[in-house]
Amino acid sequence: MQLELHDIQGTVLRNRPMPYFGSYVLFSIENAAAARTLIERLIPHVTSAADWDSPKENAWINIVFTYEGLRRLGIPEAFLDQFPVEFKMGMAARKKILGDIGRSDPAYWDLPHGNTGFHVGLLVMAGSEQLKEKKLKIGHNAIAELPGITLIARLDVGVPPNLREHFGYADGFSRPFIAGQGGEPLPGQGEPAKAGEFILGYENELGKIAAGPGPEIFWKNGTYISIRKIKQDVMAFRKFLTEQAGSKEGQERVAAKIMGRWRSGCPLALSPDKDDPTLVADPMRNNAFAYYQDDLDGKITPPGCHIRRVNPRDGLKDSIVDARLHRLLRRGAAYGPMLPEDATEDDGIERGIIISFINANPARQFEFVQSQWVNDGDFISEGSRTDPIVGRRDIKDDYAYPDKPVRKRIKGLPDFTATRGGEHTFLPGISALKWMVSQGWNP
């Protein structure tokens, strides 16, 4: 199978650079003609998957739209009606399904979404701060003298200097390998995933062509990106570890048991008793594990830990759930400054992570994982226990895992995170962007 890499926006298939500097830049649309002019100005700067490995420069731009943005652009209602219901409703309206309750309720969100003015967004990525600003200038120039297009938000993200997210975990080790992307799978990636799980226009794991609304040119080589802004309470997390274990080694062990990896990135599956940072730098080793043969009962990597919930691998092989139908491509980056290691109190500055989940079927992929695997434990015989790091706490607030000499149970698990924004967005193919500019729906 050949993927049309030249027509697929680059963020879908390729890894970000390291170090990584990025921005989410959000606009509102009040004038359809101005919006089409904006897109026309940006198209020459949109990076495809074809030139991602050897771009002219180590920086790029991709474009996404909300449902309301496509409507304001002038896309016919007959096409819009064919979009998935979760995309049409918007993520804020899906709060009960996604567990965005309490302090995660959309009433407290500070990142605009489809119902509060976010209509079109630029995802900017770069290998340096200077290159990022250069790409952002392209976006600012594109809206120059365009009444009816308003810049409403900018969120700068990246990888902190210590290459860890705010809770101290190294990130980015596991992702599906997509058939047709080129190269060979790394150990631990398993069999290649069907491209239609992540890109419209190709066969998915159900044996069907993943399709979108309207004419094929509108959806072919496009996808959905489910964006989540997650605030992290770093001081609460640190205090929790201190309460659970007095020694530094004990705290690291607890952190590993709730994540499934040591904070260095070393997986428990490969080094269950102590951290082994030498594994982390080797891509042939740092993700080379499965569960079915060696750890089906979760004595090494706890069944309820974060990495096993969001990616069960082969651990559900004998269950009624086909994990291959619920895989996600995840792009995560931190926002806000790091809390100093010697801090004894929170400094009042917001920090967290913003995650882009790439999926061709948001209901079957992102929303299923969030509602059934993150916020419910029934699929792993954990009852209503939720993810120990990012799960909701209103139903259950404890966590248990096998340990020596006896099973360990943690009661009163704090809320370490809170949702501060989210939206289902549509990332069209490059041909679709040109079709939108030309108003190809008009006879």
Automatic annotation (TrEMBL):
Cofactor requirements of the protein: heme b
Q: Which domain of life is it from?
A: Bacteria
Q: Where is the DyP dimeric alpha+beta barrel domain?
A: 7-136
What do the Gene Ontology cellular component annotations say? Answer: cytosol
Q: Name one Pfam family in it.
A: DyP_N
Query: Has keyword Signal?
Result: no
Which one of the record's GO molecular function terms can you name? metal ion binding
User: What protein is this chain from?
Assistant: Peroxidase
Q: Which organism is it from?
A: Chitinophaga tropicalis
